[in-house]
Specification:
Chain lengths: 184, 370
């Protein structure tokens, strides 16, 4: 089960007449809901080891949900950055859930081993969770605060995006720690 | 009393068979063609079995056709945009059925009409067509005016909520003139407008932002409107009573900026005994790229494509056909034909593939019943 829950709401003569009527029709794409800033999404997926993982079980942590695939070059470029970020900040409460939309699970497992990814790599090979998030591009990462609310959505990955993402993560980690201290 | 599905199917088939016998009894002649075509290139294989039948008398001809495209996708290769087409990763079958009629209204005028429907797991299409042809200039020339309209529904096999539509409307005018017993000239023009979803819903397009590596991948997004025009002059020349030469040129233009030029030469030889016919053909095609298509997708843009058929490209096709008419089963006049085509595609600015070789071959058997 991997449903996504979100709080967002979101005769020649007659032939020519007929042709003219049809020409005036403009058929646009149907509107689709997408997870964006302010939403509180949830999902349940399994990781590469077969363990069930939900987003809601990480309430209280700062979570990066990254939608990616091994065939997506910018996604591959982003992984060393996420590995470093996780290594440096997991003790502060950062969780990374990398949702792979690959259909070839072996390729994902090989990629994780090759790049020594220390965080959870989740499998979404029927794309239901990714489609429910409706990322505008690949990769898309969602920074989710300790209350489970999407605070920042980032599309694509360029090398100079790393600093920006790092600053957002630090800001959310600071907020989370302040909350904890206030609660005490 | 309830009717099971298998009983209903048997009844339906029996009713259709009886209808076919009744229809056949009303007509002077029936023709059935069974064929098998196979196409193979770097992206996959398509096998197409087809059955066509016609019944006709002096005034009316009815025709039906059924075909299936069994599509087997090639193994995806990482970093190749075509591999992002998830539909190409498995075998799927597309069924198409057509019924039509030709009515000889008078010695000079004929009407034709038809309905075509096709279904595959992620695409349904319905099209209506009609045409009127009239002989003029003491029956030395023929003018044909036709129109067609179609509605397609685009889905995605992995997403039942994905639903897009595409409307197609077209008109065509053709003029053929017998200049002398050895020479026929033909001029055709067709116009078509498409409104709706025209992208590949599975395809992701790499978008570059000035560096040599893509910054992100975006779903392919084509304009929603496309207006297509084509003009085709052709001559058929018979330098000898057994030899026919078809020479044609087709100019294509659309409002996406594509301009295409096709040249074709076909030679047919039919021997006097009419026991065999042979033909060879050579076809060349070249086009520029669509206006919204950017080399290596250098800018983040609203409209984008990963379709190599919208890039600057050319293709060269060479092929042949052999048709045998053995003196067997005299009343049924069987015709057996074999055809083979090889096409070389060259893509000038498609980053994934610079060239591709495609092979197509087919086998047809036609029988008549009088």
């Amino acid at each position: 089960m991997n449903h996504l829950k979100t709080t967002s709401s979101r005769s020649v003569g007659s032939i020519w007449i007929w042709i003219g009527a049809l020409l005036t029709l403009t058929v646009g794409p149907g509107a689709s809901a997408e997870v964006t800033v302010g939403d509180q999404p949830d999902f349940e997926l399994t990781d590469l080891d077969g363990e069930s993982v939900t987003l809601s079980e990480h309430r209280g942590d700062v979570v990066i949900v990254d939608i990616w695939a091994t065939w997506c070059d910018p996604c591959r470029q982003s992984m060393p950055f996420y590995r470093r970020l996780y290594d440096e900040r997991s003790d502060d409460g950062l969780v990374i859930l990398a949702i792979s939309v690959d259909e070839n699970q072996t390729a994902v497992a090989d990629f994780r081993r090759e790049h020594r990814l220390p965080f959870s790599v989740l499998v979404d090979n029927d794309h239901k969770t990714a489609d429910a998030f409706s990322p505008p591009g690949m990769p898309t990462s969602y920074l989710i605060d300790a209350d489970g609310v999407v605070r920042y959505r980032h599309v694509g990955f360029r090398q100079n995006d790393a600093d920006k993402l790092e600053r957002y993560v630090d800001r959310l980690l600071d907020e989370s720690n302040e909350h904890e201290e206030t609660d005490r | 009393m309830q009717l099971s599905a298998s009983s209903a199917g048997t009844l339906l088939l029996t009713a259709l068979a009886l209808a076919a016998v009744c229809v056949a009894a009303c007509f002077d002649r029936a023709t059935t063609t069974a064929s098998y075509q196979h196409h193979q290139d770097d992206t996959g294989r398509i096998s197409t079995p087809e059955v066509r039948s016609t019944v006709d008398n002096e005034e009316l001809q009815l025709n039906t056709r059924w075909s299936a495209d069994v599509i087997s996708g090639a193994t995806p290769v990482a970093a190749a945009p075509d591999a992002y087409s998830r539909a190409s990763e498995f075998e799927q079958t597309r069924h198409e059925a057509q019924v039509g009629a030709n009515w000889q209204q008078s010695a000079e005028q004929q009407w034709a009409g038809g309905v075509t429907a096709s279904h595959e797991p992620d695409y349904d299409a319905l099209a209506l067509s009609t045409a009127v042809s009239r002989d003029i200039l003491d029956r030395h020339a023929t003018v044909i005016v036709g129109a067609d309209a179609g509605f397609d529904h685009v889905g995605r096999v992995d997403d039942p909520l994905f639903s897009r539509s595409l409307w197609t409307v077209g008109v065509a005018v053709e003029f053929s003139h017998i200049i002398n017993p050895q020479l026929v000239a033909h001029l055709g023009w067709d116009f078509e407008t498409r409104s709706g979803f025209q992208s590949n819903p599975y395809r992701w397009v790499p978008v570059y932002d000035g560096s040599h590596r893509p910054a992100l991948m975006l779903h392919e997004q084509h304009p929603h409107r496309r207006v297509r025009n084509a003009m085709e002059p052709m001559v058929v020349w018979a330098p000898h009573h057994e030899l026919f030469v078809h020479m044609g040129y087709r100019f294509y233009a659309d409002d996406w900026g594509v301009r295409g030029h096709t040249g074709q030469l076909r030679l047919f030889h039919a021997d006097d005994s009419d026991r065999y016919r042979t033909g060879v053909r050579l076809r060349g095609y070249t086009q520029n790229d669509a206006r919204f298509y950017r080399e290596r997708y250098d800018d983040v843009q609203t409209l984008r494509t990963g379709d190599p058929r919208l890039s600057r490209m050319y293709s060269l096709t060479a092929g042949g056909r052999l048709e045998l008419r053995p003196e067997l089963f005299d009343r049924h006049r069987p015709r057996l034909s074999l055809n083979y085509d090889a096409t070389l595609y060259r893509y000038a600015n498609y980053p994934v593939r610079s060239s591709m070789l495609a092979h197509s071959w087919g086998l047809n058997l036609t029988m008549e019943w009088k």
